[in-house]
């Protein structure tokens, strides 16, 4: 699935470049995701890669992946990974020095837990949802920007919250 | 629509992964959850589990509870067994299972908590005071008068989390039972609601003592809490007596004018629970002694209602001893004399 998404990103990127005046941007990393679980929020580090096209109105395709978690206690142990794909439309406004962003769109999350104790059982959950967020982009030198985004993504049972800080470059 | 389809296609489990307590101790294994109607929202005959909500108290010390949203455990069903996505689901099902086990066991002894069912169990509600959240032994507490369990994350990592400890859940349910036996109704005010009086402080100790009696006798474990937290002062198989603790009257005298002085209800409570454990050792049947304790709680309330007097201090212990079989009365009195030195019980002339 990851390869398919990267191909999709590349195709979108090329299309955007060919479209002429639309601005394309990519690269984002390092985030903290607060996932709900039976009512609690737990902070988990994550990485995110995104591709974005547009100017005032933009389209972003993002792929996020949490750092694998390993947990164990008396008589139980598991490893867990999660990923999310989101396609969000964003509206930006502001000055050359600071841009405000609001974005929303559909998302699909996947959580895969591999229990190793008390038994070897794999549990995978897919959850479609809607993602929305507010953020700021700070243009830097040489077409680089620093951006922060606070977002929420609905899942089948609850809402994920995340804080993203990323660097991006336009072409 | 996609969510609805996914929800509808979720097969119902017939067992759930949870901490279970066996002869060899605790283990994580699939078990049944009696009366659980909806796993998705943790709604069942014994409890409705919620996330958040709030407990607050006004200036007149009147408590109120605002329920939070239904708890939503992430899980999948594999071969009929519900496996949680993470450990918090494990904790939720463990708590519900122990709660159901306790209520069923009490009902079989004629000590029913049916009037309180289903309990509300609030995971991490907002509390009126931060210091309440920092008391590690109270991470699974029952708020009498509001009929709600308050469950908090363990501050101290334990092999068996407090909310998954069968004895702890039984202890908290014991608070509900004591409230029903003494106040008469689940949402009624307690018999004594002024914690600045000897009556109120004695009641607090009886509450803790009775709850420990329920926990130790149902689990048949005098040190039930130590699976989760090192708390040797709560052992009921030690040699603690009333001479070793600060009694309510002494506390009131010592703390006069000191608004920060706090009475420890567990100390005297452990004396009561230790006496009950002594009687269990004599009787050989913990269930029978638990029934005696239930009758003793009712008798204490009937006698103490109205004006508090000296006889009400030890009438619970008196009824415990008096409820023992005649052939064990002498030994029971000897045990009471060790736990309550210098206290003259009517059952022990």
Which short descriptors sum up this protein?
heterodimer, A: 171 residues, mainly beta, 1 helix, 10% helix, B: alpha/beta, five-stranded mixed β-sheet, four-stranded mixed β-sheet, 10 helices, 39% helix, globular
Give your account of this protein's structure.
The complex is a heterodimer of chains A (171) and B (349). By secondary structure, chain A is mostly beta strands. Helix content of chain A is 10%, strand content 72%. In chain A, strands 1, 2, 3, 4, 5, 6, 7, 8, 9 and 10 form a ten-stranded antiparallel sheet that branches. The model of chain A has no long low-confidence stretch (mean pLDDT 84). The N terminus of chain B is likely disordered. In chain B, the strands form four sheets. Chain B has a five-stranded mixed sheet with strand order 8-5-11-13-12. Chain B starts with a helix and ends in a 10-residue tail after the last helix. Chain B is of the alpha/beta class and 349 residues long.
Protein topology:
The complex is a heterodimer of chains A (171) and B (349).
Chain A lengths: L1 H17 L4 E4 L4 E7 L2 E15 L2 E10 L2 E5 L2 E19 L4 E19 L3 E19 L4 E12 L2 E13 L1
Antiparallel strand pairs in A: 1-3, 1-10, 2-3, 2-10, 3-4, 4-6, 5-6, 6-7, 7-8, 8-9, 9-10
Chain B lengths: L1 H7 L6 E8 L2 E7 L4 E3 L4 E2 L2 E5 L2 E4 L5 E4 L2 E2 L4 E4 L2 E4 L2 H22 L10 E5 L6 H4 L6 E4 L4 E4 L14 H18 L14 H22 L28 H7 L10 H19 L2 H19 L10 H8 L6 H11 L10
Parallel strand pairs in B: 1-10, 5-11, 11-13
Antiparallel strand pairs in B: 1-2, 3-4, 5-8, 6-7, 9-10, 12-13
- What Rg of chain A, in angstroms, do the CA atoms define? 17 Å
The topology string of helices and strands of chain A comes to HEEEEEEEEEE
Major pleated sheet of chain A: 10 strands, antiparallel
Helical content band of chain B:
25-40%
Number of strands of chain A: 10
Structural class of chain B: alpha/beta
The total of helices of chain A stands at 1
List how many beta strands of chain B DSSP finds. 13
Largest sheet of chain B: 5 strands, mixed
- Largest interface by Cβ-Cβ < 8 Å: A-B, 27 and 38 residues
Please bin the fraction of helical residues of chain A: under 10%
Helix-strand makeup class of chain A: mainly beta
Poorly predicted runs of chain A: none
